[in-house]
Amino acid sequence: MTARALRIARSQPAFMASLLVLAAVVFMAIFGSWLAPHDPFAINPTSVNQGSSAQHWLGTDEFGRDLLSRLLIGIQPTMLVAIGATAIAGIFGSLLGIAGAYGRAWLSFLIMRSVDIMLSFPPILLALLAVGFWESGVLSLAVVIGVLYIPHFARVAHSATLQVTRQEFMEAERAMGASVGRVVFTAILPNILSPLVVQATLTVAAAILLESGLSFLGLGIVPPEPSWGQMIGTARGYLAQNPMYVIWPSLLLALTVLAINVVGDRLRDILDPRLREE
Hints:
It is a single chain. By secondary structure, the protein is an all-alpha fold. It contains 13 helices and no strands. The model has no long low-confidence stretch (mean pLDDT 86).
């Protein structure tokens, strides 16, 4: 990243604000259990659906559990699912995309047509179908969502690899008799990392939304373990008694996804090769 790219980042207040939001979210995901002022699983029948107070800053839920404490730990499973799914999709999708662009014609046809078929279905529909056969939990959700986003990485890696294979240094690698593994890991992969990094940020945001949607429908994180999407789904039935119950997790979820998307958009500009050349 050049000095010019760093100046661009500093001159973008929305980008810097988004970085601060993401830093806070990561901090919550790591240290939320220690920051929680109350036991997030402790039930108190005498303080059900209360508003903000000195004892419970953000109020309580339908079982009298402290909302702030549950919000602080509710991001942990969501982030684990999102990061795990992005890692799975990034590794396998990138390898498939490279194989489709650098491999034989029949292999390219098979991979990319399979990618096109998967991309024709909305991820939420495939996720609903898949989670019906799996036990709900962080690991199963990460695998399901990761598999669903493999085609997105494959498409990006395929397009970027096609551009790299037309470069002169690729002809030099072939002329020297370099092995396929050497070409892929020393010539192709380092030159397609920029679009893959951008795709990773967008996939994290999409995975957070998909996990939240599944938890909202009761097919994601299993209670009493909280997640923001699950809390939003539960809070629908208590809007009249405690409207802030649904507002807090919704606001945090929206801010997190928005921040990730803003960072992804700016990374696309910062990692643009034309900026690196200036």
